[in-house]
Amino acid sequence: MQLTEQEVAFESRVAVNGNVRLQYTAAGSGPPIVFLHGFPDHGMGWRRQLEALCGRYRVIAPDLRGFGQSDAPQGYGNYVLTNLVNDVLAVLAAEKLTQAAIVGHDWGGIIAWWLAIRAPQVVRHLVLLSTPHPRNHLNAIADPSNAEMIAYIRSFQVPGAAQMLNIDELATWVADPRDRQALTESLRRSSPEAMLGYYRANIPLGKVPSLGQLPLVKAPTLVLFGTDDPYVPVSAFDGTFREVDNVTTLVALPGAGHFIHHQAAKFVTEQIEAWVERPLSGFRHLA
User: Of 127, 155, 183, 200, which has the fewest beta carbons less than 10 angstroms from its beta carbon?
Assistant: First the structure.
């Protein structure tokens, strides 16, 4: 039976990766689903999904390092993808999990892709929101025809960019007043240098390098994206199936933008649940 919003008892827990403490929200019991947020967001940005699914699943949503209540180590090198992937592994270890469904949006989606590439054994099902495969993402950034769309990435990398961030403006994409206030408070606890460190540490300012041969993702993979995303070109999702050695489904949401877990929350939640409920025996890859 699904819990009502009033009955949801969210737990606040801590995972540790080296000297970095990661705060995460958890609720419910059952098959685990880990939700990874992007920029500018926080773990409770998944509130609608957490509330809807915690009656049947163990739902887990960390504040990524640098965001909200998690630690924000100084120096861009702390935000390379290896560290971000290890943070997710630390959360799984704190929950005593060897495997989980992983859902990621924006930077959380990039981390989810790399987790599935580098630690395939821990990813049971993979769901990406508004996030192309890392190879396609870098190719889109390198494409001159996308220069206007991805201009914000370059602006985040110039010296002094962190001091120019306006927290109130960063939260305006959230329509619900309660959720917008929660995000604003979380972003005020966040480190601007750390948040932009994701871009500085992982996206080169010069020529975008080729990623070369990468292991194929072994988990059954669902990709959801909005056709009107102002930050990610629709073409970046072309050929996603070539990066996955399993069943791969792409779902385009007509008219939706970048933050589809808010803009189409009910639909997104239903798609996530349907995907993680599909038995692995029905897929090519068996966990």
Answer: 155
Residue 19, number of CB atoms within 10 A of its CB: 8
Q: How far apart are CA 75 and CA 201, in angstroms?
A: 9
Strands of the sheet containing 32-36, edge to edge, are 11-17, 20-27, 58-62, 32-36, 100-105, 123-129, 221-226, 248-253
- The DSSP code for 64 is P
Q: What pLDDT, on the 0 to 100 scale, is given for residue 209?
A: 75
Strand 248-253 and strand 32-36: the pairing is unpaired
The answer, yes or no, to whether the previous bond of 31 is cis (omega within 30 of 0) is: no
Residue type, 116: A
Q: Which residues of the chain have pLDDT under 50?
A: 1-6, 285-287
In this predicted model, what pLDDT tens digit does every residue of 102-135 receive, in sequence order?
Answer: 999 999 999 999 999 999 999 999 999 999 999 9
Give the model confidence (pLDDT) of 157-173 as tens digits.
888 999 999 999 999 99
Residue with tokens 């809807």: 52
With beta carbons less than 8 A apart as the criterion, state whether 99 and 124 touch.
yes
Please count the residues of the chain.
287
Distance, CA of 188 to CA of 191 (rounded, Å): 8
